[in-house]
Amino acid sequence: MTTLLRPVGNLTDGEVESVLQAAIAAPSLHNSQPWLFRCTDRTIELRADPERMLPASDPDRRETLLACGAALLNLRIAIGALGSAVDLRLLPDPADRDLLAILRPEGFARVTPHDQRLARAIRQRHTSRRPFLDEPVPPELCAEMRRAARTEQSWLATVAPAQQSRLRDILAEAHRVQQQDPQFRAEFEAWTARTGDSSDGVPLRSAGIRPAPQDVWTMRDFGTGSAPERRPGKEFESDPLVAVIGSFHDLPLAQLNAGQAMQRVLLTATAGGLASSFMSQVIEVPSARAELRGLLGGALWPQTVLRLGYGSPAPPTPRRRLDEVLSVD
Description:
It holds the Pfam family Nitroreductase. It is a single chain. The protein is of the alpha+beta class and 329 residues long. The protein folds into two domains: 13-126 and 317-328, NADH Oxidase (3-Layer(aba) Sandwich), CATH 3.40.109.10; 139-309, NADH Oxidase, CATH 3.40.109. It is built from ten helices and nine strands. The chain has helices at residues 13-23, 62-81, 113-124, 139-151, 161-179, 182-191, 252-271, 281-284, 286-295, 322-325; strands at residues 35-39, 44-48, 84-90, 99-108, 155-158, 241-247, 275-278, 301-309, 326-328. The strands form two sheets. Strands 3-4-2-1-9 form a five-stranded mixed sheet. A four-stranded antiparallel sheet has the order 5-6-8-7, sandwiched between helices. Strand 3 and strand 4 (99-108) form a beta hairpin. Helix 2 crosses helix 7. The protein is globular and about 55 Å long. The two termini are 18 Å apart.
């Protein structure tokens, strides 16, 4: 246990460690982990870490807010699974844009079996960059994921089969735009295909396989040429479940809530036996995002795009130590 830990509210120092470990298990763009935490006697603060933002991929901080929202949702679920209620304030100080949330663990809450399932899924969820099976996701699990998004003031829309051809074109164009940007390529290569004992970024063991040109659903090579080649007969699924999590406006509060919705959907999918990965290109390239919004009818602002399905287990990506992301008042 790090010496920085102390009791917070009605949580012991050991419980504070466990909920913070759950928080940092959240996904982030290229596993950049752009979050910081600060503990006082009564509160846990979540802050964005400006030194870990990716200017080429995320110039408007959208991915940073999504990742921090995912960490916040993990934190809330982990605290709730201990039987503690949580008083939550989002974006509490307009003068401090990096202060994203203040949580006050106090009082008691009833722990349901559903809460426990999601809490267990925090450790089980890992991004899978491998092919999925051509097996449809049951409608009842899709409905459960939609409810999960609505719980966090967001909306989940699935891309219909008739829309997938257009989505392929949008994805391919977004990938082409990014590959023509030398700053993006340099940033991507700096954060992926890592070897050794790095505590962040995407290690080579988690890079999946090297995609072929026809693998339109996962064009990014997270192994930057070093990942194993796709073997014959191991094609990516022809008809994936593509889910878009969107919001009804595009301000930072909506992006932070969308990050919470994204993580609640991912945990629901994990608890239901699904694997998941991200199709970030269509969000990171403004023209592609605008086309995706039009494809979905123009009412929602797309915040993240998920590929969901049945796949093999994926190895976890590394995480920074708590003493690297935690300060105590």
